[in-house]
Amino acid sequence: MTNDALRTILPVAGWGEERARAVEITGGTDPILPTPFRIGETSAAALAAIGLAVADLWALRTGRRQEVAVDTRQATASLRSGHYMQMDGAPVSTERNTVMGVYPAKHGRWSYLHCNFPNHRAAALRVLGVPEDREAVRQAAAQWDALELEEAIIAAKGAGGMVRTMEEWAQHPQAAAIASLPLMEIRHTALAVTHRREPPCRDPPPSPGLREGKRLGGGDRRDPERIHDGGGTVRTHWRTGSRGWSGTSQGVTQ
Q1: Which of 92-106, 125-139, 236-250 has the lowest mean pLDDT?
Q2: Pairing mode, strands 243-246 and 110-113
Q3: What is the dihedral of CA 156, 159, 162, 167, to 10 degrees?
Q4: Of 17, 73, 167, 203, whose CB neighbour count within 10 A is largest?
Q5: Residue 96 domain-assigned?
């Protein structure tokens, strides 16, 4: 299957277009989930690029190459992996806080309130001046101009915003800032060290589908960041056989 997204990111890693032919991508095309964005193609492209990089590292170590294959449906499912998570054989709840969501505001506009983290929820409720009750939040938000509510919540160190059309977002300063950046870049940020303290975790078991002897091993990834970047990076290292851990600040919900 042709993947234009993969061909777009290949040059960033210094790879030629012929590397795209080294990946087998199956599993259908977008839309896989109900969204106007091509998340199936892009998630498959990202995982394919990871697979190519891992194959290169394996070739450097062993002189042998590995085949890389990605199922687009499974790649898309990985974007909402929390929905399929189990602990001790039982599903893990993915329910959001009841006041989190999109609310009607003045002049026919809508406002989104991110309230899953306690600190963000407290900021939104403080701005609205209401208790943790969805109906109370709905009535309070309806009295606000959506843009003014966005600015007030951000000033209170909360999270949320006015719902915008694609055209409105394109005119936003943050959209302009993002548009000025490369799609992806690789930067050398620090020199490797020859000694390290072992992280407080055991080596991970081989990932399902990763045959013994195929693990990279010997790698060590430490990432004191947040969910989307830190956790995702560590997960990638664990799946390929390296060690890794992700941390956060005391009192900050993950």
Answers
A1: 236-250
A2: unpaired
A3: 130
A4: 73
A5: no
Q: Tell me which residue range forms the domain holding 33.
A: 4-83
CB atoms within 10 A of CB 115: 24
**222 SS3 class:** strand
Using pLDDT thresholds of 50, 70 and 90, give the confidence band for residue 248. low
Whether residue 79 sits in one domain with residue 23: yes
Residue located via tokens 């991110």: 114
Give the integer Cα–Cα distance in Å for 123 and 143. Answer: 17
Please give the Cα distance from 246 to 254 (Å, whole number): 10
Kindly indicate the confidence band of residue 211, based on its pLDDT and cuts at 50, 70 and 90: very low
Inter-CA distances, 126 with 26, 140, 209, 212, Å? 48, 11, 48, 53
The verdict on residue 91 lying in a domain is no
Q: Which two tokens stand for residue 76?
A: 């898309």
